[in-house]
């Protein structure tokens, strides 16, 4: 059987598709019957097409804007609605008004939409000419409408072609909703598909029934959708390493190859060990597969060695939702010993020790997403993060010490939060000028599968599918209730007026970071010399003479209560309280939620993320 696995826009241009590259290996290794399985990366083809069709006017920056910003507004899906519905500029006026109300710029989306039908027609004809028996679309985020548009046109050109969709957009109940509403999609696979896809190929070969394929949506004789129970989560060691050979071949042949810096994608773990105990209230990741599983460290090392050797790429994006803490003992020390210059992007938990941060750097984990989210301990408690605000600040300081880039956003809009929760933090934000600011400040989304979604009593009692879906699908609300991932609800937490105050404070922080430093050095006599060069603060040097005061400041390198730090430093609580008050006035400590942490770094950091 001839099988083609397709990754549509808007997968990032610099990374191959992990699901496509993994399923191709799985099909080759596990199927009892040999199949001809190929990959097709039409996100690259789309970027090439836009460049040529517009004489270079639409390039990679315009593509990336849709992929990274437009994702929150359905922009990438809307661009392909003319191809799906065979209608030029489908609901254009309504969509433009929708974006305008949200202050989102259109970018090149209107011009892109004018080219989507021709692109889909061209690709459909090419694929139909190849006469594949089965086409599988991997759909995540904004890949739904592009995939549906191409599937519909291929089905019209070659009705005998079997078409299946899978991926994050097809988790239950979203996948069955796609199957019900788009008759040209023959099958939908929900859940983790490493074994189910093999079983599905066996079904097509006549070796089992459709009802025996876990997670499969299929049509009964009366054309109604039947959805099988999902497959059990596979152990990670049973999942092979992806094979990106076809993606790199496509990139090498692409006229835009010189503008793309490729990165490998790797998955060492699935699920979230923190989420198994306390799911962050706003988080809808993992869907129905929260159970945490990770690969053995030795297997990770073997896979990474194979991928790096084969593709000669050292930048690696780990798609794990959270770092396995066992890897601090088993994997990272081994990575640190290698003579490779690996650069990882990894999601971690924020309550890491400085020794852990040091190890991350040595192992090549130089870009991290630690889930900081907020600097109010009360708000962090509301979202069930299991971390104190001073731990978040300590992480920012420690990453500054070790030249690790931190990727985070300041989230707000949680049920039960108050302006007072933010006021105490905003008052101290200028003191953090030398630490990495959030990339932005964002009101939280209501996501399917999150505790906020599953438990309306937490605060979001009224909800409806997000307005973006009205501009993307020609479906009624009942169907969108099952198909949507994002939902709209009345705002909770701080109001829109105070929201502006928060956003303004974050913007100010972003503007001063590169010009700011605050460094503490220990002199031979144990005196502390603090050199303050933060934007917005008077440039000055401050000495904390050797003795109890300097010892108190050292104790605050890790978050402490004032009373606890005072005992360790041999000071009375009153004396310590007076010193901390003075240091807080000078912006040398962060004091929140009953705990205090010092802010100076031990050395001036490299401020350019490109050098980290």
TrEMBL record:
One Pfam match, by short name? Radical_SAM
The cofactors named for this UniProt entry are: [4Fe-4S] cluster
InterPro entries from the UniProt entry: BchE-like (IPR051198), Cobalamin-bd (IPR006158), Elp3/MiaA/NifB-like_rSAM (IPR006638), rSAM (IPR007197), rSAM_horseshoe (IPR023404), rSAM_ocin_1 (IPR023984), rSAM_sf (IPR058240)
**In which domain of life is the source organism classified?**
Bacteria
All copies of the B12-binding domain together span 75-211
**Gene Ontology molecular functions:** catalytic activity; cobalamin binding; iron-sulfur cluster binding; metal ion binding
Give the PROSITE patterns listed for this entry: B12_BINDING
GO terms for CC? cytosol
Record's keyword terms, sorted? Iron, Iron-sulfur, Metal-binding, S-adenosyl-L-methionine
The family database entries (PANTHER family) matched by this protein are listed as: ANAEROBIC MAGNESIUM-PROTOPORPHYRIN IX MONOMETHYL ESTER CYCLASE-RELATED (PTHR43409), BLL1977 PROTEIN (PTHR43409:SF7)
The protein here is known as: Ribosomal peptide maturation radical SAM protein 1
């Amino acid at each position: 059987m001839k099988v083609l696995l397709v990754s549509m826009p808007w997968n990032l241009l610099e990374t191959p598709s992990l699901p496509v590259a993994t399923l191709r290996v799985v099909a080759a290794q596990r199927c009892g019957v040999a199949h001809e399985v190929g990959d097709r990366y039409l996100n690259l083809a789309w970027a090439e097409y836009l460049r040529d069709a517009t004489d270079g006017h639409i390039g990679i920056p315009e593509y990336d804007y849709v992929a990274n910003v437009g994702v929150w507004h359905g922009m990438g899906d809307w661009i392909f609605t003319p191809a799906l519905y065979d209608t030029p500029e489908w609901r254009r006026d309504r969509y433009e008004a929708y974006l305008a109300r949200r202050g989102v710029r259109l970018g090149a989306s209107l011009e892109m939409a004018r080219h989507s039908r021709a692109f889909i027609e061209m690709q459909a004809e090419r694929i139909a000419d190849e006469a594949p028996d089965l086409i599988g679309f991997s759909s995540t985020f904004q890949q739904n409408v592009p995939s549906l548009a191409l599937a519909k046109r291929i089905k019209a050109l070659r009705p005998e072609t079997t078409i299946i969709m899978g991926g994050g957009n097809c988790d239950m109940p979203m996948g069955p909703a796609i199957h019900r509403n788009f008759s040209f999609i023959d099958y939908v696979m929900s859940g983790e598909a490493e074994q189910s896809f093999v079983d599905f190929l066996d079904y097509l070969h006549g070796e089992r029934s459709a009802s025996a394929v876990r997670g499969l949506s299929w049509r009964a004789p009366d054309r109604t959708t039947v959805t099988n129970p999902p497959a059990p989560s596979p152990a990670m060691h049973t999942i092979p390493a992806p094979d990106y050979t076809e993606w790199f071949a496509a990139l090498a042949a692409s006229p835009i190859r010189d503008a793309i810096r490729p990165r490998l994608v790797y998955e060492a773990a699935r699920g979230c060990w923190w989420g198994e105990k306390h799911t962050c209230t706003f988080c809808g990741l993992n869907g129905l597969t929260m159970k945490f599983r990770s690969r053995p460290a030795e297997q990770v090392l073997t896979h990474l060695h194979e991928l790096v050797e084969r593709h000669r790429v050292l930048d690696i994006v780990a798609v794990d939702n959270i770092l396995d803490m066992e890897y601090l003992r088993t994997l990272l020390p081994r990575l640190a010993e290698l003579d490779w210059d690996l650069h990882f992007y990894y999601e971690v938990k924020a309550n890491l020790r400085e020794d852990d941060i040091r190890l991350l750097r040595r192992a090549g984990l130089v870009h991290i997403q630690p889930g900081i989210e907020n600097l109010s301990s009360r708000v962090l408690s509301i979202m069930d993060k299991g971390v104190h605000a001073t731990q978040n600040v300590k992480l920012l300081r420690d990453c500054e010490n070790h030249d690790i880039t931190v990727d985070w956003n300041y989230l707000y809009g949680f049920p039960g939060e108050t302006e007072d929760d933010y006021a105490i933090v905003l008052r101290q934000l200028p003191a953090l000028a030398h630490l990495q600011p959030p990339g932005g400040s964002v009101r939280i989304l209501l996501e399917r599968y999150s505790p906020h979604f599953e438990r309306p009593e937490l605060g979001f009692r009224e909800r409806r599918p997000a307005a973006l879906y009205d501009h993307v699908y020609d479906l009624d609300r009942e169907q969108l209730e099952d198909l949507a991932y994002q939902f709209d609800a009345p705002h909770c937490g701080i109001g829109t007026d105070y929201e502006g105050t928060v956003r303004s404070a974050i913007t100010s922080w972003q503007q001063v970071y590169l010009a700011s430093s605050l460094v503490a050095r220990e002199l031979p006599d144990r005196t502390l010399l603090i050199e303050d060069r933060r934007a917005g603060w008077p440039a000055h040097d401050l000495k904390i003479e050797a003795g109890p005061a300097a010892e108190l400041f050292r104790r605050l390198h890790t978050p402490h209560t004032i009373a606890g730090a005072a005992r360790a430093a041999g000071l009375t609580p009153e004396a310590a309280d007076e010193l901390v008050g003075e240091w807080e006035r000078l912006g040398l400590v962060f004091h929140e939620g009953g705990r205090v942490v010092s802010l100076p770094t031990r050395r001036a950091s490299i401020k350019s993320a490109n050098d980290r």
